[in-house]
């Protein structure tokens, strides 16, 4: 398969670049997934936002807050 050591070294370098590219792609995908996951809001934060925007009353806020505990 390999005629000389230069051919073998060329093959090894090519495979190294392919492996590096695959690792980079996997890293970028995982980074994107974890970034999206960390942006998810907690139920309590959503409840606070709704109360602050006057979408729900104080009574409703307290009732739902107690349900979340």
Characterization of the model:
The protein is mostly helical. Helix content is 80%, strand content 0%. Helix 2 runs antiparallel to helix 3. The protein is rod-shaped and about 80 Å long. The N and C termini lie far apart (67 Å).
Structural class: mainly alpha
Average pLDDT reading: 88
Extract low-pLDDT stretches: none
Helix content: over 70%
Dominant shape:
rod-shaped
- What is the β-strand count? 0
Rg for CA atoms: 27 Å
Percent of residues in β-strands: under 5%
User: How many domains make up the coordinates?
Assistant: 2
Distance between the termini: 67 Å
Secondary-structure element order, as H and E? Answer: HHH
Summarize the helices and strands and which ones pair or pack.
Layout: H1 5-38, H2 43-52, H3 58-68
Helix pairs in contact: 2-3
Give me a quick take on this structure.
The protein is mainly alpha-helical and 69 residues long. The protein has helices at 5-38, 43-52, 58-68. It folds into two domains: 1-38; 40-68, no CATH class.
What would the keywords be for this entry?
single chain; 69 residues; mainly alpha; rod-shaped
